[in-house]
Design brief:
mainly alpha; two-stranded antiparallel sheet; 2 strands; about 300 residues
Length: about 300
């Protein structure tokens, strides 16, 4: 099987499973996020791979499953109606961004080839901009129809730049064998899947966090249990240092534009919709009139 066919098959398969689980009801959603990590743990145990698997990858997988379980409870258990519900949804995405920023900082200070070619300083800055331009918790809502979709109105531009930024991070990862972009193909699968679901199936970019949380858990399950062909194709031959730098630059420019738009929007409307706008008002960098009109 060629890598192109594998990409298409993987994206369609993960999308189909994600969609089926999401709309099978609240019980299926919650239990899937519990059974999936337990099943992966048992598989690794009986396959004799539990203590040979990448510990960081295992922790990431379990944390993502926990995040998907939290999103399921926000959808179906009324958690959003509690005082901490919106903050919980906000924190799920913020922590995800913070993890990548932390790894980028570690990779930069530890040196190596990626320090020269990966453009990681730009990606660190882009991640910080994305974190402060993420929509405030009050932009998180749950539908009242049978589907009870979690809508988090981040904006399509933010979602697209976030996807480029995350791919730039994975594209620049260097393995102990000094190979770059080993998981570039897998990154395309787990990043394009939620985009496909929100742009083609749901036609609503505000559904991104709901689609992203579950589809990432499913994609990680394959990476943890079946990290070989035909399930996962490694792509070190895709790496090009110029492209790595370009991806980081695109993410940085895009995130900077989003931040600039937030500042412009604040001055035009006086409404706070992101942490950056809230910080600007708190620091007194906007006019007193705008501060009075702003929504906390």
């Amino acid at each position: 099987m060629s890598i192109t066919l594998w990409l298409l098959a993987a994206i369609i398969s993960v999308s189909a499973v994600t969609y089926a689980v999401l709309y099978a009801g609240g019980a299926v959603n919650r239990w899937f996020c519990v059974v999936l990590p337990v099943g992966v743990l048992l598989y690794l145990w009986f396959a004799g791979d539990l203590f040979r698997a990448d510990a960081i990858l295992i922790v990431k997988f379990f944390s993502v499953c926990f995040g998907a379980w939290l999103v399921a409870n926000i959808r179906f258990d009324g958690w959003l109606g509690r005082s901490w519900g919106g903050g919980l949804g906000f924190a799920i995405l913020s922590i995800n961004i913070g993890e990548v920023i932390g790894f980028e900082i570690y990779r930069y200070v530890s040196g190596g080839a990626e320090r020269i070619y990966g453009g990681h300083l730009l990606n660190i800055a882009a991640g910080l901009f994305l974190m402060v331009t993420q929509a405030l918790p009050r932009k998180l809502t749950v539908g009242t129809d049978l589907r009870r979709n979690v809508r988090y109105d981040l904006g399509l531009g933010w979602v697209l730049i976030y996807s480029v930024w995350d791919f730039a991070f994975i594209y620049g990862i260097v393995t102990p064998g000094n190979d770059h972009n080993v998981l570039g193909g897998w990154a395309l699968v787990h990043l394009l899947t939620p985009l496909l679901l929100v742009l083609v199936v749901g036609r609503d970019s505000a559904l991104y966090i709901q689609m992203r949380a579950l589809s990432l858990a499913i994609a990680l399950a394959f990476l943890v249990c079946l990290p070989y062909e035909p399930f996962i194709y490694l792509t070190p031959h895709w790496y090009d240092p110029t492209l790595a730098g370009t991806l980081a630059a695109v993410a940085f420019v895009g995130a900077t534009c989003i931040a600039a738009h937030d500042i412009w929007s604040l001055r035009r409307t006086g409404q706070t919709e992101t942490p950056l706008q809230w910080i600007i008002l708190r620091l007194g960098l906007a006019s007193r009139d705008l501060h009075k009109e702003a929504v906390p």
